[in-house]
Structure formats: structure tokens, C-alpha cells
Amino acid sequence: MSDRACCSLACRDLASDESNCGACGSVCSNPHGTTACGAGECYPTSCSAGWGDCDLNGPNGCERSLTTLTDCGGCGVACNLANASESCSTGTCLLTSCNFGYSNCDGNQSNGCELGHGSAPNTCASATNLGSFGGDAACGFLCTDSPGWTTFATTNGNRSAWYSGRAIETSACFGMIEHRVTLTVPAGVNYDLYAYSACGTLLASSTAGAGITEQLFVSRSKTALDDSFNYWIEVRYVSGASCSTWGLTLAGHNC
Question: 204: Cβ–Cβ under 8 A, 6 or more apart, which residues?
């Protein structure tokens, strides 16, 4: 059977004629690329930048834009970054913003906004211990006020976390045994500071605004017994975002 036919008073090869592909008047077209006729069927020979033949249906050419979130740079290649908003307007998946409470701190766009500021790596029960230190507010032969604050532990981070410490009685003087807990936070981020005498039993708190240093004191009145005590600290994320770290400092008295 011949593939040739008389179309518009002219002999045409229906197997390869782009204007009469498979039948007279059947024109191959590809708005987003080039096309050809082979074996009586239209097919795209190339696609323009940003377009693809994703349905593998030759007659409709390069039918799909490759600058969408479902087809980003390739057919079926999704642009869906973790904890983020994205754009594929250039054919490349780009991170445009992070969701609330998240930051892109590793500089790697492919894993989105990987740092969740409100996601603590531990709990009160598994709090990181920062050690122990003297806490007597009065000491010496005459039980005078103890020297000023002495820092005995520091740490930093960029998300919620739990820590613990211990205030030690080192003097027989009556009065208070105390520690000071200070949290410095980056500008534009709000972390609050809480202290507990036991997990779930609030002892003190500091809830200043974003970028403002938080500080609290844990204390206990002394008796004739050893009044050393443990306490737990919660650094709690509230709002804002920054890859800069907060700094936590524990201080006591060195009698």
C-alpha cells in the first residue's frame, strides 16, 4: 500500500510530509519546539528551553512547562523542599522562604529549611548535665556576703533544649544557696528561659521579647542540713529565625 496521496492537487508523501502527515491536511505542529512526520505520525524532534514532551504523545508536541513545582527542570521532577516555600520560575528548584520556626543554616537548598528551632534534641528526663558549683550567698568566718558571681558552665545552640545543674552547699553559714542562669539570644529571635526544681515543677522563668537577654535565679533557703539541690533548665523557642546561636551561662559563688 502506497503512502502517497493527492492532496490539494499535489502528490504528497503521507509518511513524512509535515503538512500532510498520515492524511491530507493533517499538519504537524509543536508550539514549544520543532516537529517532524515519520511513518505517518507527528513527533517532536526537540523541545524549547523550559518545555518537555511529558505525556509521550507525539502529535501534541512539547506540551508541558518545566518551570512548575510539579515538573521542575524535567518531567515529573517535583520542587518540594522541606519546611519551605519554593519557586521553579527558572526551571531550577529554588528556596524562597522558610516556614515558621525553621531556617536554612547548612546553605544546602536541596534539603530545604533543615533546622527546626522549636525541635529540642532532648527532654527534661534526658537533659544535658552542665555540672555543679557552690551556691552559698554567705560564707567565711563571719558569714559575710560571698564573692560575686563565678561562671562555671557555658553552652550554646540554635533550637530548644534541656539542661540540668546542681547548686552545692559549701558553707555552714545560714542564708541562701543560689545559682544564676543567663541566656543571650540573637537579634530577631525570641527564646524564653525556664527553671524547674523537678521535671514539671516550675521554679523560675524569664520571658522577655525577641533579642533580649533572659536571666533567672534558682535558690533555696539553707537549714542545718545539706541543702544542695538539682535543677533543670529549659531553653524554649518562641518565634523568629536565625542561624546565629544563643548562649547559656550558669554562675554560682566561689566561697
Answer: 194, 195, 216, 217, 218
